[in-house]
Amino acid sequence: MFGKPTTEIASTVSSARAHLRLKVIAALVVIGFLSLSLLLGASTTRHFDGLEVEGTAKFQRQVADALALLREKSPSAYQAVTNHVLVIKQSRRSGMRLDLKKPTFELANPTAYYSITWCASAIAHDSMHSKTYHDYLKANPNGQRSEEWSSQVEEEKKCNAHQLQVLRDIGAPLVEINHAAQQDGTHADVNKDGKYDWDDYEKGNW
Q1: pLDDT, tens digit, for every residue of 163-173?
Q2: Of the ranges 11-25, 125-139, 147-161, which one carries the lowest mean pLDDT score?
Q3: How far apart are CA 25 and CA 31, in angstroms?
């Protein structure tokens, strides 16, 4: 049997080495991605009594504990959550997204991780925004909700009052109860221009 010419052998070896290098690089990229995912926490979805909870495993545990607390200590508030919120999603800021197909409470880490009780009360608070919105649509299928600031403030006051009662129901620390009691319904106007709009939502840091 005759051997391959020297140049052909060299070419084959070079090609094999290049192919091996590509495999090594690809493997390193995958390992790096998996390591980063473990470090940052990969976002997944789990269910809690029909609610979708989307975020890292740590976030899901925090929300599940908050929901369990609501279910045990404030059943009526928990029912409002399950009736008017379909998704709780880890996000950069907190707010009720009623423009999405599924009513989604976007919940930011500062609010979620402040405490279990504060997390639970925040979920309850925004469930009332969703309830108010959907109650209005049922009563006024062809109507247009008022965007006047005074109307928005009144809605916020009602949601604050609900949150305050929930904090008391679930045995929250006095500092949280006092903070909620001091809210006047204008905190959502982050840029202080006399209205609550998308710009305020984008600037929110809670």
Answers
A1: 999 999 999 99
A2: 11-25
A3: 10
Q: What does the pLDDT read at residue 33?
A: 37
The most confident of 113-117, 133-137, 151-155, by mean pLDDT: 113-117
Model confidence at 11: pLDDT above 80:
no
Give the domain extent around 143.
Answer: 44-203
Burial (CB count <10 Å: 0-12, 13-18, 19+), residue 148: exposed
Q: Length of the chain in residues, anyone? A: 206
Mean pLDDT of 19-33: 45
Contacts of 64 by beta carbon, 8 Å cutoff, 6+ apart: 46, 48, 53
Number of domains forming the structure of the chain: 2
DSSP-derived secondary structure for 93-147: S-EEE-SSSS-EEEEEHHHHTT-HHHHHHHHHHHHHHHHHHHHHHHH-TT-----
Query: Does 196 score more than 50 pLDDT?
Result: yes
The identity of residue 157, as a single letter, is: K
Is 171 within 8 Å of 73 (Cβ atoms)? yes
Residue 123's nearest CA partner among 157, 154, 185, 79 is 79
* 167 shares its domain with 148: yes
Alpha carbons within 13 angstroms on the beta-carbon side of residue 95 total 20
**Helix or strand or coil: residue 191?**
coil
